[in-house]
Design a protein that fits this description.
Its cofactor is Ca(2+). The protein is α+β, with helices and mostly antiparallel strands. Mean pLDDT is about 90; it is low at about 465-485.
Length: about 700
C-alpha cells in the first residue's frame, strides 16, 4: 500500500499572515486568528486515488480530547460537530489546496494538524505541521471582537505606548516598549499560561478553558506577579533594590519576559504597578486580546473594603503605620475588551485586570476581570473583584491625628479626592485621554451618591450620615472605629497652602512657602510643625529629610507666608533611586481644631535630547545622538546609557558613560538598524547611582525598504 507521499506543506505564510493580521510577529511559525479561514497547499510526490477519504485532526494541549474542545476531527466539505471544517480548492497538478476554518470560540494556543487518509481498508496519518491560534478582534463572532479598526490598531497591534505617572497636578508621560511581536514573545506568552497553577493542577481542563478571554485574562493577572506560582515579576515596595533592578529602570516588557524565560522561570526582580501592567499588556496583546494600560491618580488601597481609607499622623505630621490602608499617588492597571457571557451584555466592553499583588482573590494574588460598567453602577457583588476596584476609585480619605496619650482626633485636611484623572493613551497619538467617566458618575452628582450608597449596602457597610460603621468583623480593632467615627473633622479657623516657588530640578534646592490665613477676627498664635520625607509613589515614607518648628502670630484675617528651603545636601542621600517628596505641615492653635496641609513634590528630570541623524528606513543604518547633562554640582561616574525600541533594536543597547564633570553636558552616539516599518518608539534611559534615571523617548516613522 502506497500512502499519499507529501513532498512538503506550504503554509502560505505571507498570504495567511496578512489576512490574519499576524504579519508583525517575528516568527517563522504559522500564526492564525480563530474564526477565520487559512489556506495550506500540499505538494505531492504521489497521485491521489479517486476513492481516498481525507480527514483532518487539529489538536492542542497535553491530552487532546473532543469532549474538551482540544481536539477537532473534520472531513472535507462538511462542518464537524467541533465547528472546524475544511474545503478543497482548485489546484495545479501535483498539489492540493485546502481552506481550513476554525470556529470563533476555539481554544487558543499551539496546535498540531494531522491529515488522515482512508484508502480502501488502509488508514495512514501524516503530521502536516504546527500552527498557533490566537483570539480574533476582527471576527464579529469572537468574544474579543472590536468593531473599530483604529482601536484594533492601537489595542492589539501597537507595540509601544505611554504609561502615565506622577501626581494628579503633575502628570508625566513614561514611554513603554510592549514589544508583543518581538522574537520569542509569543512563545513566552504561551509559556506564561503553561506555568500557571491551574495548568499544573489539571492541564487538560486548563487548556480547554483557553477559549474564554475571561479565563485567560484572569490567569495572566495571577501569573504576571510571582506571589503564588513563580510568576514573571517579583514586586518590591521598600528598602533597596541591590539584588535586582530598581522598578523605575525598566523601559519595557521584552527584557523582563526574556529574562524570566531564559532564566528558567525565575521571577524577575523587581516590579511596581506600572511594570506589572506593562507586562500584562504585552502578554494579552500578543495573544490577541485588545488591552490598554490605565492610570488612576490618588488610588485607594482599601484592605478591608469598607470604602474608607484612614491615615494617621502624630503631632509632628509623621505618618504612623496603624492601618494597612493607603492612598497611592497613582496606581496602574489594565483594561481588556471582551463580552461577559457570565454577567450579561450590559457588562460587555472594557474589563479591569490588575496584576499588581495587593490582595488575594479566591486565595490567589489576582484581580479581575471586573467590568467597568459594574464599577460605575456600584455592582460590587459581581465577578471578579469589582468591589476592590470600586474602592480604588471611590473610597473616602479620612485623616486622624494621634496624641501622645493615645487620644485620636479627626483632623481637617483638604480631602484628597480619590480616583482622579483616570488616564490612558489616546488611540493613534501619545496624548492623554481621561476615562474617569467610564468608572464613575460626575463627582457630587445625585447619581454618584446613589451608586455609593448602593455599594455600601452590597458591601454591608452601614452608613450614618458622613461617617461609616462596618458591621462585619474587622481584622483589626482600632480606637477610631470603636468610636464609630461619630465625629466629622471640625473645620479649623485657619486655612493653609504649601506653594512651590519654582519647578524643582534634581540637584537644586527646593524653595517652598507655607501661606497661612486667619479666617476670623480673633488674634491667634499658631504652632507649625513642618516635615519633609522621601516617599515612594505609594506615599510610604522611605527617609526623613527635614523637620522644622515655627511659631506664628496671626492678626485678624491676616495672611502670613513662611518660606523655607530643602537643600540638595539634605535630600541627596534619600533620593538616589527615586525623586518624590512629601511635605506636611501640622498647624496647631491652642483651643481649636488643628489643620493638616500636605504637598507632594516630584523633582523634574534634567533635560535629555535625542536626535536621529538622517532618514529612518528598514534595514538601513542610521545614527542617533543623545545629549544629557549632569544635574549635580559634583563629579558623576559609572553611568550607563540604555536604549531600546521594538522594530529598531533587537536587544537592549548599553553604553558606558565613564565620567561627567559637575553640570557638564555629554553626547553619546550609537547606530540603529530598523527592522520594521511604521511608527516606532525609541527610548533612552541614563542610569546612574547618584540620582534616579533620566529618561527620554522619540517617535520615528520608519519607511519600508
Amino acid at each position: 500500500f502506497l500512502a499519499l507521499k507529501i513532498a512538503n506543506v506550504n503554509w502560505q505564510s505571507k498570504l495567511n499572515k496578512a489576512a490574519h493580521h499576524t504579519s508583525d510577529y517575528s516568527s517563522t511559525e504559522a500564526i492564525f486568528r480563530r474564526g477565520q479561514a487559512f489556506n495550506i497547499t500540499l505538494n505531492l510526490q504521489t497521485t491521489v486515488q479517486s476513492g481516498d477519504n481525507f480527514t483532518f485532526i487539529a489538536s492542542t494541549g497535553p491530552s487532546p480530547a473532543e469532549s474538551q474542545q482540544t481536539k477537532a476531527i473534520f472531513n472535507l466539505s462538511e462542518e464537524g460537530a467541533s465547528g472546524w471544517n475544511a474545503t478543497q480548492e482548485p489546484s495545479e497538478p501535483g498539489c492540493m489546496n485546502f481552506t481550513i476554518f476554525s470556529p470563533a470560540n476555539a481554544v487558543i494556543g499551539r496546535y498540531k494538524l494531522k491529515l488522515q487518509i482512508v484508502s480502501g481498508n488502509k488508514v495512514s496519518s501524516i503530521l502536516l505541521g504546527q500552527f498557533v491560534l490566537l483570539f480574533n478582534p476582527w471576527c464579529p463572532n469572537d468574544d474579543v471582537y472590536m468593531a473599530n479598526e483604529k482601536e484594533r490598531q492601537e489595542y492589539v497591534l501597537n507595540d509601544s505606548g505611554i504609561i502615565f505617572q506622577g501626581l494628579e497636578k503633575y502628570i508625566q508621560q513614561e514611554a513603554w516598549n510592549y514589544g508583543q511581536f518581538e522574537e520569542d514573545i509569543l512563545d513566552i506568552s504561551l509559556a506564561v499560561l503553561d506555568r500557571s497553577l491551574n495548568h499544573r493542577q489539571d492541564p487538560a481542563v486548563d487548556v480547554s478553558n483557553r477559549n474564554n478571554p475571561i479565563y485567560v485574562s484572569r490567569v495572566i493577572s495571577a501569573m504576571v506577579n510571582s506571589n503564588d506560582e513563580k510568576g514573571v515579576v517579583e514586586g518590591k515596595w521598600n528598602g533597596k533594590y541591590y539584588s535586582g533592578t530598581n522598578p523605575l529602570q525598566w523601559s519595557g516588557s521584552v527584557t523582563i519576559l526574556r529574562k524570566w524565560y531564559r532564566g528558567r522561570y525565575k521571577p524577575v526582580r523587581y516590579g511596581q504597578c506600572w511594570v506589572f501592567a506593562g507586562v500584562t499588556c504585552t502578554v494579552l496583546r500578543s495573544l490577541g486580546i485588545p488591552t490598554r494600560v490605565i492610570t488612576n491618580f490618588n488610588s485607594a488601597h482599601d484592605r478591608n473594603i469598607n470604602l474608607s481609607i484612614d491615615k494617621y499622623v502624630d503631632i509632628s505630621g509623621k505618618t504612623l503605620h496603624l492601618t494597612e490602608d493607603s492612598v497611592w499617588n497613582f496606581h496602574v492597571w489594565n483594561e481588556s475588551w471582551f463580552i461577559r457571557r457570565d454577567l450579561g451584555s450590559f457588562y460587555d466592553g472594557w474589563q479591569v485586570l490588575d496584576a499588581t499583588p495587593q490582595e488575594r482573590s479566591k486565595g490567589i494574588y489576582q484581580c479581575g476581570p471586573a467590568s467597568t460598567r459594574a464599577i460605575k453602577e456600584g455592582d460590587v457583588n459581581l465577578d471578579y473583584d469589582s468591589s476592590f476596584v470600586f474602592a480604588a476609585v471611590n473610597a473616602d480619605y479620612v485623616t486622624w491625628i494621634c496624641y501622645s496619650n493615645k487620644r485620636k482626633e479627626r483632623i481637617y485636611s483638604d480631602t484628597r479626592k480619590i480616583g482622579k484623572f483616570i488616564s490612558t493613551k489616546a488611540v493613534g497619538t501619545n496624548s492623554r485621554v481621561d476615562v474617569t467617566a467610564n468608572y464613575k458618575y460626575p463627582e457630587g452628582s445625585l447619581k454618584e451618591r446613589q451608586v455609593y450608597k448602593k455599594a455600601l449596602k452590597l458591601l454591608r457597610v452601614r452608613s450614618t450620615g458622613k461617617t461609616t460603621k462596618i458591621t462585619r468583623p474587622r481584622r483589626r480593632s482600632s480606637a477610631a472605629w470603636r468610636q464609630n467615627m461619630t465625629q466629622p473633622a471640625q473645620k479649623p479657623s485657619i486655612s493653609g497652602k504649601l506653594i512651590l516657588d519654582a519647578s524643582p530640578i534634581i540637584g537644586q534646592d527646593i524653595l517652598l512657602t507655607l501661606a497661612l490665613r486667619n479666617l476670623i477676627s480673633d488674634f491667634k498664635t499658631i504652632k507649625v510643625k513642618l516635615r519633609a520625607s522621601a516617599i515612594l509613589y505609594t506615599r510610604k515614607p522611605k527617609a526623613e529629610i527635614l523637620q522644622l518648628s515655627r511659631s506664628i502670630k496671626l492678626g485678624s484675617e491676616e495672611v502670613k507666608e513662611i518660606s523655607f528651603k530643602i537643600s540638595y545636601s539634605q535630600y541627596k542621600n534619600s533620593l538616589m533611586d527615586d525623586r518624590k517628596i512629601l511635605v506636611t505641615a501640622v498647624c496647631d492653635t491652642k483651643q481649636e481644631a488643628s489643620l493638616l496641609v500636605e504637598k507632594d513634590i516630584v523633582l523634574q528630570d534634567p533635560f535629555l535630547t535625542i536626535k536621529v541623524l538622517g532618514p529612518t528606513v528598514v534595514h538601513k543604518a542610521v545614527n542617533v545622538q543623545v545629549t544629557f547633562t549632569n544635574p549635580l554640582s559634583e563629579v558623576v561616574t559609572d553611568c550607563v546609557l540604555r536604549a531600546e525600541g521594538s522594530g529598531l533594536l533587537k536587544e537592549q543597547l548599553r553604553i558606558n558613560v565613564a565620567r561627567m564633570a559637575p553640570m557638564e553636558s555629554s553626547t553619546v552616539q550609537f547606530e540603529i538598524i530598523p527592522y520594521k516599518s511604521g511608527t516606532r518608539q525609541l527610548q533612552v534611559d541614563l542610569v546612574c547611582i547618584h540620582f534616579s534615571d533620566i529618561k527620554g523617548f522619540v517617535m520615528l516613522d520608519v519607511a519600508p525598504a
